[in-house]
Amino acid sequence: MLSLQTLTLPRAIPPLALSETSLWKWSANHWIPVPYQFNEYDDNGNIWIEKVGIAAAGPINTLDDSDRILAIDTGAATTKKHITPKDKIVAALISTSGTTYYLRNTHAPEVEKHVNFSRQSGVTRTPLYELSANPDNEIIWRSLKDAQADSNSAPLIDSLELEISAGILTSFSRVSLGPKNLKAEVVGSQGGPLRQTTSYHIKVVMLGIPVMTVDMQMSRYPAAITFSSNAKIPAAYRAIIRKPRVTIGLNSPICQSGTVSLGGTPAHPICLDNNRQINDISMPVAGKSGVLELTKNGMHLSVTLENRGDSPLPIEYYLHPSVSGLQGGYKMSHLPDDNIVQFFMSLDFSRLDSTQNNTH
């Protein structure tokens, strides 16, 4: 069982140098190194990446109470690592599961990577999933598979698609741009054993007019993939843009052998399996977030979209059958007055036959 924990440094602890700090637990009279990674954040609440150019929320390369510590408890056996007297405990951290971890001012042995990402191939592998993306444009997904499924089995997701459409001067002449027309430029990246994060910048140009910019950060975790996005229409062009729409779509063959639930309200989910057919479905999301759930062969995928902007933003589910399986996702229309759309999307993986927990 892998349990990803997010730990916070107590305010009473002075800032610690990242290069001189490691995470351990005490078990069976031995110190056991725990796989860990430090998350430093920027002023926008995203993972801090120097090349992005946004100021860090706290001192860089220093662990303080504005940062978070990712840890995976693998239940590893005891280690023969000897802790010398000069090594000292600088903080004891208790996780949500009740386990006590210790920060020490010593270097830990090299730990196993639980997120393996290759920018050259565009492939991400973790214990739960395998994501294949176009290495030249990483927002174009080729497939998302169960890491333990047979190589010949259908993927959970065929593709994830970002589409932006709008009318120029009039709403009757709409222009739509899909993934092949939206180039995600890599601005910066940061990797480690438990998380790999990349920041992208997308320029949306319609009929020669730069109608929108999208700054996106994607993080790959052992049991989750998250997107934090900020889409903005330049004020100079807002007057000529009519009814802009951002659509995030998931294409999946899962309805051939799995189940799907789409919940406007938890008490009334809409289900799809081999024995039921559905018509096109579209419904508003209650509140500021919604969840689309997919289940197949013991793997559960929960897709959550949250509106994180200051202004209310209508979000709409959509779900309809396609030739290859299922198309579903979210549509966001009617930009708020400040012309900025801030949304967060996460794909969380879990096995129905395990007690695995995921936090990110």
Any chance you could write out the topology, listing elements then pairs?
Layout: E1 3-8, E2 16-17, E3 22-27, E4 30-33, E5 36-39, E6 62-63, E7 68-73, E8 89-94, E9 100-104, E10 116-118, E11 123-125, E12 129-134, E13 137-146, E14 159-168, E15 174-177, E16 184-191, E17 196-206, E18 209-221, E19 224-232, E20 241-252, E21 259-263, E22 270-272, E23 281-284, E24 289-296, E25 299-307, E26 315-321, E27 326-333, E28 340-351
Antiparallel strand pairs: 1-7, 2-6, 3-4, 3-9, 5-7, 8-9, 10-11, 11-12, 12-13, 14-15, 14-20, 16-17, 17-18, 18-19, 19-28, 20-27, 21-22, 21-24, 23-26, 24-25, 25-28, 26-27
Tell me, briefly, the overall form. globular
Tally of strands = 28
Mean pLDDT: 77
- The helix/strand class is mainly beta
Helix content: under 10%
Give helix and strand order, one letter per element, not per position: EEEEEEEEEEEEEEEEEEEEEEEEEEEE
What does this structure look like?
By secondary structure, the protein is mostly beta strands. 0% of the residues lie in helices and 52% in strands. It is built from no helices and 28 strands. Strand 3 and strand 4 form a beta hairpin. About 2% of the residues have low confidence.
